[in-house]
Amino acid sequence: MSADMAKIKTRNGTSEHKAVSKKDWIAVRQTFLAKEKEFTHLRDQLNEQRRQLPWFKIDKDYTFDGPKGKVALSDLFDGKTQLIVYHFMFGPEWGEGCAHCSFWSDSYEGNAVHLAQRDTAFVAVSRAPLKEIEPFKKRMGWTFKWYSSFGSDFNFDFFASFTDQEVENQKAFFNFKESDPGTTDREGASAFYKDENGDIYLTYSTFARGIDLLNTAYNLLDLTAKGRDENPEMPQDWVDYHDKYEA
User: Fold this and answer.
1) Where are the alpha helices (DSSP H) in the chain?
2) What does the alpha-carbon distance between residue 140 and residue 100 come to, in Å, rounded to a whole number?
3) pLDDT confidence of 1, banded at 50, 70, 90?
4) Among residues 204, 201, 173, 169, which one has the least CA distance to residue 186?
């Protein structure tokens, strides 16, 4: 290897990177910055287009179990006009929540107070009974609000849960197309708005890779030389509960 080359070892092999002077590095970085700014402006445009999407009015009553008893969907707004629901993969009788959703949820801790300043409430919802959710939540050390939709159609109606028959047939409506859901409960996020009359609307929902932006760890890794350094065939095979990693 020449003096002006550096090696980097990743999960997918070894590659070489050119090493240059600080002056040359800044010049290359400035060129790439122009591409980043273009991407940022495109993302701003996409975000605006998202806000202009039509809304779907919710005409069905949903009941959830929370630490203080039964609550309605309108109660989850906690006095705000906007609500973000994270569909946490935790089905009845699973015993513990999904490790990958737990990976995502580590990014949510502490955000509720900031979201509240922008008229937005945040909660997680799972089909597991509250008696299974609460000890798992305590184990993970999370304080964000987490409700059970056990016995409710909520997760099914908002495309995050599926019947045993759909899983067996490998055919369900997931991520806005007919596909194999893989399991009865999948990850996702839904945004709702409640107007001055108390009417509630679904304004947006996203699943699969659509929730990438919600994961702070991934966004930090994307800044590094190795990036996410994952197995292309099974990208998250390294993920575990934060209390299970070896020191």
Assistant:
1) 22-51, 99-105, 112-116, 130-140, 154-157, 164-169, 216-221
2) 13
3) very low
4) 173
The Cα 24–Cα 204 span in angstroms is 44
Instruction: State the DSSP code for 61.
Output: -
Mean pLDDT in residue range 72-89: 98
pLDDT at 16 over 90: no
Per residue in 203-230, pLDDT tens? 999 999 999 999 999 999 999 999 999 9
Q: Are strands 63-66 and 200-207 parallel, antiparallel or unpaired?
A: unpaired
- In what helix (H) or strand (E) does residue 244 lie, and over which residues does it extend? none
Distance CA 176, CA 182 (A): 15
Paired with 66 in beta bridges are: 69
Rounded Cα gap, residues 99 and 220, in angstroms:
19
Contact at 8 Å (CB) between 146 and 126?
Answer: yes
Question: Average pLDDT for residues 1-26, to the nearest whole number?
Answer: 82
